[in-house]
Structure formats: structure tokens, C-alpha cells
Specification:
3 helices; mainly alpha
Length: about 100
């Protein structure tokens, strides 16, 4: 987010330079358009990263709940030990997937 704010500040400064005739209007307008395109791309990447992270968090919450329920169902059952080991293996695999 800090990077996006910095990019927006750069666009603002360039606009001021164009208005003050420090930068030629045609070159400034072209550069502003390019910078705004970069900002939109960065925002899209941040949104994609955030939604992927949120999705993974939801998957982990669901997996945790399912594992806890299975372990409580088979508590004091001979299958409890192997089930816990299998559950931890599944948990580790889900946690490290992209």
C-alpha cells in the first residue's frame, strides 16, 4: 500500500510540473498515463495477493475444524493415533501449498 501511495504522489508531482510548465505538456501527459497504468497494475497485484491469502486462511480454518471434529469422533478409539498422524500430515501439506 505504501508503494501505491508513493506512486500516486509521483503522479501528483508530475501534474504540478506540467501545470507549472516545468515539463512539456505532451511528454507529461504521456508519462502520467503510463504511471497510472502502473498504479492500476500494482493495485490489481495487491488485490490478487490479498484475496489468495484470505482464501488460504479460510481453507485452513475449514481444515482445522474438520480435523478437530474427526479426532473428537474417534477419541479413545484404536484408530485415534494413526488418525492424528494422518491429520497432521494433511495439515502440513495444506499449510505449505501455494
Amino acid at each position: 500500500m505504501y508503494e501505491i501511495q508513493e506512486m500516486q504522489e509521483d503522479v501528483r508531482k508530475l501534474r504540478e510540473d506540467v501545470e507549472n510548465f516545468t515539463v512539456k505538456r505532451d511528454a507529461g501527459v504521456a508519462r502520467i498515463a503510463q504511471m497510472q497504468k502502473e498504479i492500476r497494475g500494482t493495485i490489481a497485484q495487491v488485490d490478487l495477493f490479498t484475496s489468495a491469502k484470505d482464501r488460504k486462511g479460510l481453507l485452513l480454518i475449514g481444515a482445522d475444524r474438520a480435523i478437530r471434529e474427526m479426532i473428537s469422533i474417534f477419541k479413545d478409539d484404536p484408530i485415534e493415533g494413526p488418525l492424528q498422524e494422518a491429520a497432521m500430515s494433511v495439515w502440513a501439506k495444506i499449510q505449505y501449498e501455494e
